[in-house]
Amino acid sequence: MKQSQASQSSILIVDDTPENLNVLTHMLTKHGYQVRPAINGQVALNAVRKTLPDLILLDIMMPDIDGYEVCRQLKADKRTRDIPVVFISALSETMDKVKAFAVGGVDYISKPFQVQEVVARVQTHLAVRNMQKRLQAQNTQLQQEIAERTRMEAQIKAALNEREIFLQELHHRTEASLNVICSMLKLQASFSDDEQVSSIFKELETRVRVIALVHHKLYETENLSRVDLKGYMFDLAILLYRMYKVNADEIVLNPTLESVFVSIDTAILCGLFLNELLSNCLKHAFPDGRTGEIRLGLRVLETGEIELQVGDNGVGLRKGFDADKDGLFGLQLIRSIEESHLQGTITHKTDHGTEWLIRFKEPDDKKKN
Questions:
Q1: Mind listing the pLDDT tens digit for each residue in 100-115?
Q2: Which of 60, 222, 239, 346 could staple 67 via S-S, CB 3.0–4.6 A?
Q3: Closest CA to 294 of 305, 285, 303
Q4: Within a domain: residue 253?
Q5: Lowest mean pLDDT: which of 86-90, 145-149, 164-168, 198-202?
Q6: Quick check: helix, strand or coil at residue 363?
Q7: Would you say 85 and 106 are in contact if contact means Cβ atoms under 8 Å apart?
Q8: Number of folded domains in the chain?
Q9: Each residue of 25-40: pLDDT tens digit?
Q10: Domain-terminating residue out of 93, 113, 133
């Protein structure tokens, strides 16, 4: 051990023979250790209570309190139990050595001792003790860091819970406010004798309910930023059936829907698409009490595009119909939203009724929400 390292270590030597004390003190001081001698066990215990040594060299055969009892008391005290105790004794029987280890000793040196052996063992046990101290310090620091991280995680979790509660309440209040607007539109429509005006109010009401339903779905789910289009589209279809007082046994809804999660903005746009197309089916595809089927589809294509399908086996569009030129406001709204927001395509065909296909990719900035 280097001189600078040894000088940092304190050794308590306990022996009732002054000659042994002097030899060990001189020898270890020469090697750079800070040495404190103790002439008996009680003096040693008092010295340890005042200042903790890094290592103790302990004789066994001493008056009043022998070395075994001194070691027992040291190991029973929380402050001193980790101090390594090396016994140095003239007792050479195996049972004496076993007893020394049983009471807590880490080593046993027989008298007469060799200087080089004592120094070597002291160096070894001090090196082990210093390593233990470093590990204990690192463990304490790690525990403090874990406690701090646990505290911070608890704060973050509490903040996230508060945010979720806030967002949930926000969606709930938004839905409630939109429902109030719907009620006002419905009431306003009832005051008009003009069927065209009433129809406009009803269409406005359904569009507002599309948005309200999104907030309702978000309020019901744990994920407050993503909407499952599958459940949303099905619920919206049921809502429109109810609003237009359609008999589901006469115009059967046939949904083929996959779970597709999108942002709230995309969900609202898809809801507006579905509202306009499905409303047109319910109003115009089955005149004069005809029966039939409405197909509702949702899937993700291999290209990553999302495909919405609304189809029916009704009377179809009139001959020569052009969605760009002759489309009603609802179809024009779909075209405008599709071109300006989702950058997708909308196509239709009129074989055996009418089928609309809308394909789009959700914008990257929406996928991260």
A1: 999 999 999 998 888 8
A2: 60
A3: 285
A4: yes
A5: 164-168
A6: coil
A7: yes
A8: 2
A9: 999 999 889 999 999 9
A10: 113
